[in-house]
Write a structure and sequence with these properties.
Layout (H helix, E strand, L loop, with lengths): L13 E6 L5 E10 L15 E6 L11 E4 L2 H9 L3
Antiparallel strand pairs: 1-2, 2-3, 3-4
């Protein structure tokens, strides 16, 4: 039986809005903490243990690749908004 890696968040996933240079909100991104409870030899791992973010609307599939891991949720948020 094939088993996929599990996401076990320390706290629930949270959504944040991007903001343009004028402070106008647009789109959103999701942050979450991930650790692979099945081990490193599994083919469906998201990555190493840590905080991640990706563009995503609540209730929808992610739009783009994961960014991370980061040491803290705040570091993930800063990375997601650093280009603005």
């Amino acid at each position: 039986m094939l088993r996929c890696a599990t996401i076990t968040p320390i706290k629930p996933m949270s959504y944040h809005q991007f903001q343009d240079q004028t402070g106008e909100p647009y789109g959103s991104f999701e942050t979450f903490f991930y650790y692979d409870s099945l081990g490193k030899d599994r083919p469906y791992r998201l990555g190493e243990r840590g905080w991640y973010w990706h563009s995503c609307q609540p209730g929808c599939l992610p739009d783009g690749d994961l960014s991370g891991p980061f040491e803290s949720e705040q570091e993930a948020i800063i990375d997601a908004t650093a280009f603005i």
